[in-house]
């Protein structure tokens, strides 16, 4: 009996050791993925790959901004203009919104002009519906409010658990809810949502993005130069510092 008990203890110890090794391996893998993911987030221009390298040619102002482009903040002197090409369902765009652009919009209000352009990627089923909702709101002078509602409530329409959603009915129901909350004329909103005017605006943004060399989202330009995080950037603290340094350099010229 003692011999059997000893063998059982050995098996238990062996299994316990194997379990511990497996757990440690999983932890190492998770940490590695997190680190690599952070590096990738800050060293690419979006979900579909990179864009122009930082320091590339200056993109013409009339390509980056049109008279009807949506503006989050406007600087009276027009000295510095930030233009972001975005996809509302792009997880990197949402991360940039939470970690960078929302703060820039607040902290540099009145100092820089912040323009947003549509660049919905084909891989995201709800990118076009979200862009149409934002542009329909813009026709009633409520673009900024819808822009924030869409990003602030990202999980409610863009995700299905940990995966990106493709449920257009759920997304459109959420966009309608946002439209009501920001006080839109709902009859006009529903009419504009799938109108040729709205779709033409989105298509024109995409065309300008392609002219500017945009190949992924988010892609951001500061006075015509594409902003690209420095190699090795792994946190939004570092990203904010780099972005603000470039803004301040332009403001102080």
UniProtKB/TrEMBL annotation:
<keyword id="KW-0812">Transmembrane</keyword>
<feature type="transmembrane region" description="Helical">
    <location>
        <begin position="21"/>
        <end position="42"/>
    </location>
</feature>
<keyword id="KW-0676">Redox-active center</keyword>
<dbReference type="Pfam" id="PF13462">
    <property type="entry name" value="Thioredoxin_4"/>
</dbReference>
<dbReference type="InterPro" id="IPR012336">
    <property type="entry name" value="Thioredoxin-like_fold"/>
</dbReference>
<keyword id="KW-0732">Signal</keyword>
<feature type="domain" description="Thioredoxin">
    <location>
        <begin position="53"/>
        <end position="252"/>
    </location>
</feature>
<keyword id="KW-1133">Transmembrane helix</keyword>
<dbReference type="InterPro" id="IPR036249">
    <property type="entry name" value="Thioredoxin-like_sf"/>
</dbReference>
<keyword id="KW-1015">Disulfide bond</keyword>
<dbReference type="InterPro" id="IPR013766">
    <property type="entry name" value="Thioredoxin_domain"/>
</dbReference>
<protein>
    <recommendedName>
        <fullName>Thioredoxin domain-containing protein</fullName>
    </recommendedName>
</protein>
<keyword id="KW-0472">Membrane</keyword>
<keyword id="KW-0560">Oxidoreductase</keyword>
<comment type="similarity">
    <text>Belongs to the thioredoxin family. DsbA subfamily.</text>
</comment>
């Amino acid at each position: 009996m003692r011999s059997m008990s000893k063998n059982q203890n050995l098996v238990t110890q062996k299994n316990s050791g194997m379990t511990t090794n497996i757990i440690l391996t999983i932890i190492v893998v998770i940490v590695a993925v997190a680190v690599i993911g952070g590096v990738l987030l800050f060293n690419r221009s979006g979900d579909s790959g990179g864009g122009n390298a930082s320091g590339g040619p200056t993109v013409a102002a009339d390509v980056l901004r049109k008279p009807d482009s949506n503006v989050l903040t406007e600087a009276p002197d027009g000295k510095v203009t930030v233009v972001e090409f975005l996809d509302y369902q792009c997880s990197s765009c949402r991360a940039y919104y939470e970690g960078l652009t929302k703060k820039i919009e607040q902290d540099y209000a009145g100092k820089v002009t912040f323009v947003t352009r549509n660049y919905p990627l084909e891989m995201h089923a709800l990118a076009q519906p979200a862009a149409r909702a934002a542009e329909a709101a813009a026709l009633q002078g409520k673009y900024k409010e819808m822009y924030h509602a869409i990003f602030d409530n990202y999980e409610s329409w863009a995700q299905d658990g940990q995966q990106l959603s493709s449920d257009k009915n759920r997304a459109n129901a959420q966009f309608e809810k946002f439209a009501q909350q920001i006080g839109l004329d709902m009859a006009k909103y529903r009419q504009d949502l799938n109108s040729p005017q709205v779709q033409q605006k989105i298509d024109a943004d995409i065309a300008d993005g392609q002219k500017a060399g945009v190949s992924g989202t988010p892609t951001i330009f500061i006075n015509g130069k594409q902003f690209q995080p420095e190699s090795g950037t792994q946190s939004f603290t570092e990203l904010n510092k780099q972005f603000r340094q470039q803004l301040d350099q332009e403001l102080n010229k």
